């Protein structure tokens, strides 16, 4: 299974999405910026994780990111593109539910 050492969110064309990558954090930010992305918020993971684990780790540290479009979620007003379902939305929903339960406790 492919793993990533960089995870976060960025906005491009008014759509904020999760981003996962490998390599150098500063270089990745530079590439996203050069391609017109705004509100770039990436972190470097201590150990490489698969896509779902990386997104869950990011949401755990940044609960406000739980509302970000998941990799396979279709933003309003876009065309449908067939992609392999990876369950990322389920992971973020579970992490958010856990965070909300902790707040209520």
Q: Can you offer a commentary on this structure?
A:
With 105 residues, the chain is of the alpha+beta class. It has one domain. It contains three helices and three strands, in the order ββαβαα. It has a three-stranded antiparallel beta sheet with strand order 2-1-3. The protein starts with a strand and ends with a helix.
Question: Structural class, judged by helices and strands?
Answer: alpha+beta
Number of strands: 3
Q: C-alpha Rg, in Å?
A: 14 Å
- Main sheet properties: 3 strands, antiparallel
Beta fraction: 25-35%
Model regions low in confidence, pLDDT < 50 over at least 5 residues? none
Helical segment count:
3
List the helices and strands and how they pair.
Layout lengths: L3 E9 L2 E7 L3 H10 L3 E12 L1 H11 L26 H17 L1
Antiparallel strand pairs: 1-2, 1-3
Helix pairs in contact: 2-3
In brief, what are we looking at here?
This protein has 105 residues and is of the alpha+beta class. The protein has 3 helices and 3 strands; from the N terminus they run ββαβαα.
Q: Which short descriptors sum up this protein?
A:
3-stranded antiparallel beta sheet; 105 residues; alpha+beta; 27% strand; single chain; 3 strands
